[in-house]
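Q: For a teaching session next week I want to show students how multiple molecules come together into a single three-dimensional assembly. I've collected the sequence lines for a complex. Could you give me the predicted structure tokens for the whole thing so I can convert them for display?
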Amino acid sequence: MPRPKHSGPQPDMREMILDAAWKQIAETGASGLSLRAIARAMKITAPAIYNYFPDRDALVTAMVIAAYKSFGESQLAARDAVSSEDLWGRMWATGMAYRAWALRYPERYHLIFGAPIPGDVPLSELIQPSGAHSMLALVSIVEAFRVAGKLRTVDFPRVTPEFETAYQQWRCLVGDADILSITVALLVWARVHGLVSLEIARNIPPFGPNGDELYQYELQAIAREFFKE
Amino acid sequence: MPRPKHSGPQPDMREMILDAAWKQIAETGASGLSLRAIARAMKITAPAIYNYFPDRDALVTAMVIAAYKSFGESQLAARDAVSSEDLWGRMWATGMAYRAWALRYPERYHLIFGAPIPGDVPLSELIQPSGAHSMLALVSIVEAFRVAGKLRTVDFPRVTPEFETAYQQWRCLVGDADILSITVALLVWARVHGLVSLEIARNIPPFGPNGDELYQYELQAIAREFFKE
DNA sequence: CATTGTAAATATACAGCGTTTATTTAATTT
DNA sequence: AAATTAAATAAACGCTGTATATTTACAATG
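A: Of course. Below is the structure for the complete assembly, covering every listed component.
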């Protein structure tokens, strides 16, 4: 019979490697992630890592998925900390949590929302579900606005028929919201992402310490455009 | 006496190296830029490059500055193709050119607006002027709106006094616009950047072919929020 | 014209990287 | 105790950026 994984309490080597990788990425930036440096920090040899990840890209993919999970959970927690009747309160809290998470983990933010994956298309199919799912909190709040009749209705461009199936696929990951809600959520997402990513990349120069207020201003502008009452 | 640079017509080696670098970045993506591969393509040896760039980072920095220049010129060209009396026409053209440039050179867009520079702060001081200057077209149009009294006025968060000098520095790079115009330009920039960067990173799933329309919708929404008439 | 001075290319080498292969270690099951 | 086998290691390959030493070739000078 084959030797079962381990004897005593499994040290969950995969998690330990990921932890070391996060630590390293926080110090050296997202680009300078080295398997050998991870191994060195863990006092093992580099090829040992290959018992847990087939290659470096797989490790990065796992990090991306974990980052999406952390981000998505932070979004949901922010939403659920506010009564489900206070729709705008939920939206505000989620929006504030968005930036807070990004500023707390800038390299994770950059990892998931910044560059496309090096391996490009095939890897992103593993990642896309996590990414879409992480938007569940935002989409659900917009959908709640719509159901309550408080979504400011405008005529958005419609999804072209040939992409209807792709849309349905994304839709089920994000909680069966109406396409109108998904579109609004996307536009909201783009706006907070735009400000936050500029801020993280240090492209917002004179507003550095005032980033808080500018961001809050933008959240209110979003409210004015999309949400009644 | 020392030997003057070269004899005949200088082949502008720096430019040739940069060209080869752009070619490579377009094929392998921004992360896989290799001096040796550039040298191989140019049929020279790798250390020869060090006669023109002190190290790899310097080459990347030069590419970033060149990309900002290309981007900024494309912005100015779009603006100037429309009569200076047609303010909204200029804004629309500039906005459309923004996305067009990004979709045409996604790796350049990612290079300048995506990740912070690895070398971090010291390098970015070389780059910041180029970056700020590339926003001149947008800022100038917003400023023209303001001068014409067509800027929808709202009370933005003010710049804190201790960052007044940093702001003045940025301001002169961008054409002596009023702080109100700079703030509006920043918010406009964040919105187009948000949408465009999500699109480039393939994070906008069901709207792929409809990216045009969604982007145009957003430009009009920006107009509704900020520009009268 | 021959000599010299110097810019720019090369050759060589080093350390670090991801990854593969072969080998050893150690634990579990028979 | 013997057999089995997962997981660690050791060594090596080709790649990378970069430093050093050397060669090449051309322009200015005596």
